[in-house]
Amino acid sequence: MAANNDPPTNNIVVIFGRPGSGKSTVAEAAMKLMAASSCNSGLDTTALDLDVCVPQWMKDNFAKGIYPTLQQRKEFASTACDYVDCELAKATRPTAAIVSFSFVNIDLRDTFRQRFPAAKWVLIDVTDQIANERLEAREGHFYKGAPTRKSKEDTKERNRAAAEKHNGEDNSEWEFAAVTYPHVVLDGRMD
After folding, report:
1. First and final CA of the chain: distance in angstroms?
2. Is 9 helix (H, G, I), strand (E, B) or coil?
3. How far apart are CA 103 and CA 81, in angstroms?
4. What average pLDDT is seen over the chain?
5. What are the Cα distances from residue 94, in Å, to 42, 47, 48, 140, 148?
6. What is the secondary structure of 60-115 as a DSSP string?
7. CA separation for the pair 123, 17 (Å, rounded)
C-alpha cells in the first residue's frame, strides 16, 4: 500500500473486439512487453481475461445459439467489474491491468465504462469473415460464433421464447455493436 494508506493508482487498458478478432493474442503480447519494462517503471502488470467470469450455464447457452438477455448481461457485467476490482485490490503497488473481453453489446461496455471511467479502450478490428474463420479453427473455447445465417430464424424463435421467460427482454444481439466513444483501433488481420 502507499505510505498514506491510499490504494495504489491502477491503469486499465481494455482490449476488445468481436469474438475471433485476436484479443487474447494482443493481450498476451502486451503483457510480454509490459513485463519486460515493468522492472524499470515500478508498475506491476496483470492480465484479466473476463471469459473467466462467464458462468457455465451461459457458456452452455452460447453453444446452443442462445444469447443472454439484457438482465443476464447486466448481472454478468456487474460480476465482471467486481472481479476486476477484486484483482486490482490485491495490488500492493500501482498496477496496469490489461482486460480482455469481446464487449459485443453497448450495455456491457457502458457498465464497464461507468465503473472504470479512466480505462483506455483498444478495439481489435477484423472483418466478420476473418473472425469466423478464426472461430472455426479455434479449439477449447466455449464460444464458437453466432448462429449461421441458415439457422438464424430458428435462433430468433428460441430467443423470442427465452425472452418471454425473462420479462420480454430481447436477447438476440449477436452482432458486434458500433463503438461510439473514444478508443484506439488496431488492425487485427495480422496473424
Report:
1. 40
2. coil
3. 12
4. 77
5. 8, 14, 16, 33, 44
6. HHHHTT-PPPHHHHHHHHHHHHHHHHHHHHT-SS-EEEEEE----SHHHHHHHHHH
7. 5
Check if the beta carbon of residue 22 is closer than 8 Å to that of residue 131.
Answer: no
What single-letter DSSP state applies at residue 7?
P
Q: Using alpha carbons, list the distances in angstroms from residue 116 to 39, 48, 66, 101, 156.
A: 26, 14, 29, 15, 33
Q: Look up residue 102 and give its three cell numbers.
A: 469481446
CA distance 89 to 10: 10
**Cell 472455426 found at:** 136
- Comparing CA positions, the residue from 141, 124, 97 lying closest to residue 25 is 124
Residues 6+ apart with CB under 8 A from 106: 177, 180
Extract the C-alpha cell encoding 115. 465503473
Q: What pLDDT does 138 receive?
A: 65
pLDDT tens for each residue of 79-136: 999 999 999 998 887 788 999 999 988 999 999 999 999 999 999 998 878 877 877 7
Mean pLDDT, residues 128-152 taken together: 62
Q: With 0-12 CB in 10 A as exposed, 13-18 as middle and 19+ as buried, what is 169?
A: middle
Residue with the larger pLDDT of the pair 156 and 81: 81
- Tell me which range, 17-26, 49-58, 63-72, is most confidently predicted by mean pLDDT: 49-58
